[in-house]
Amino acid sequence: MTATALPVRVTVNGRRHESTVEAATTLVDFLRGDLGLTGTKVGCDGGECGACTVLLDGVPVPSCLVLAVETDGRAVTTIEHPDDPRLGALAGAFVAAAGLQCGFCTPGMIMAAHPLPADADDATIRAALAGNLCRCTGYVKIVAAVRRAGRRSVGGRR
Amino acid sequence: MVLCAATMGVPATSDLPQLAYVRPRTVDEARAALAAPRARAYAGGTDLLPALFARRPWTERIGTLVDVKALAATRGIDDRGARLRIGAVVTAAELAASAVVRRAAPVLAEAALATASPAVRHRGTVGGNVVTPHPAGDVVTALLALDAAVELADDDGTHELPLAALLAALHADTWPRTRLLLAVQVARRPRSAFAKLGTRRGFGRALVAAAVALDGARPTVALGGLHGRPFVAAAVGAALAADAPLAPALGAECRPPVHDELPSVAYRLRAAAVVIARARARADRA
pLDDT for B135-162, tens place per residue? Predict the structure, then answer.
């Protein structure tokens, strides 16, 4: 059956949500508008800037290019997740390494870096962040922040 | 700019027209849904959604998205010996990570990895790259070098067509609306490689991309980014086989690029020779 308003049951940051969405609602608009999770930013509406990156079943996706209805039965993680240790380590490392200025790109950077192994080398980190643009500064401190988050989580486990 | 609206707290910026959405479970259901007026197949959405945001004129005919990602026939990578079958909704990320593809057709894994950005690669599909009329489809370029055929479902049942024939039909806009692309099949070519010159590593459109696949000593060369759609450059392949200079064949086979904001034809043809040589050298070593 074809419909313009559809039910969606999605787990966002560990919490289950049941609502009805318009088919033409993107995931980022659902997160920001319906759920009030405005940590995820909209930069370009074309997948080119990476600002809207979230995890869908653990995998980074551009949330401006996913329909909210497609997340039915799935799990979404955003920068607001309250108790994700990897997110906490990354956020702390971005602050400690001064890996941000205006902060607009930071949630996307952190979500894009999220799946990296803790011991990822710089080339691997840069490849993972290749789709994320920062317009304030450069990428040196951002890469350093991701490296630092990895070191901290490696150290924490031992 | 959209950026300003977002920073000012405006909630909805991704402005899509009114749409309906349906997610069929079988090929027959999908084809029935596609028969409805204003229906359009929807897979990764990485080209279709930005076109809808921008209200491109051709999107005026779209009122229903038929999500084809739940069809078993469009999923998975299947090793069939001399050929691989790759479902149409396999993503670029799945292609790049597939051990079978990396071993049997490395050019395809490399092209997938050269496409867009990591997050977009988790969405964009093989089938989408085939049917989107973009001059720089990296995956299509690799598929052409692998002598690809496509598997289609239409009113006459399921049948196969050479990829090049499908691209020509798409160009002529003679694609029946209820014809569904199920999969692509490619030749096993362990000695193959992809090289690309782009504007940005994370999202660069290929100024020129080359896919080289060796069948014994015979190279097949496909080029992307230059004009129209990616194409098999037979004369370039012959020149490569003969260790002859590539420039004459390139000049003969490459019509001038249509995108005038890109670097000059002369530059790109010179760059093409370099990119082809790089891919060839890596294919030789594979």
Answer: 778 999 999 999 999 999 998 899 999 9
Token pair belonging to B99: 């051990």
Question: CA of B49: which chain A residue's CA is closest?
Answer: A65
Question: Chain centroid to CA B67: how far?
Answer: 19
Q: Side by side, which strands form the sheet with A5-12?
A: A15-22, A5-12, A75-77, A53-56, A59-62
Helix pair angle (B234-241, B265-285), 10° resolution: 50
Give Cβ neighbours of residue A84 (< 8 Å, ≥ 6 apart).
Answer: A13, A77
> What gap in Å lies between CA B148 and CA B111, rounded to an integer?
15
Asked if B119 has any chain A CB less than 8 Å from its own CB, the reply is yes
**A2, A44, A143: best mutation site toward chain B, by most B Cβ within 10 Å?**
A2
pTM recorded for the entire structure = 0.92
Ordered DSSP codes for B179-191 = -EEEEEEEE--SS
DSSP-derived secondary structure letter, A29: H
Distance from CA of B30 to the nearest CA of A (A): 11
Check whether A122 has a pLDDT greater than 90. Answer: yes
pLDDT digits (tens, 9 = 90+) for B212-228: 999 988 999 999 988 77
Secondary structure class of B166 (helix, strand, coil): helix
Which positions ≥6 away from A23 have C-beta within 8 Å? A3, A4, A5, A6, A67, A69, B19, B20, B21, B65
- Taking the C-alpha atoms of residue B197 and residue B275, their distance in angstroms, rounded to an integer, is 7
Q: Residue A30 has what DSSP assignment?
A: I
As a whole number of angstroms, the distance between CA B131 and CA B163 comes to 10
Using one digit for the tens of pLDDT, what is the confidence trace for B192-204?
A: 999 999 877 666 6
CA atoms within 13 A on the CB side of A53: 31
Pair B48, B68: CB distance under 8 Å: no
Please give the structure tokens belonging to residue B84: 């691989």
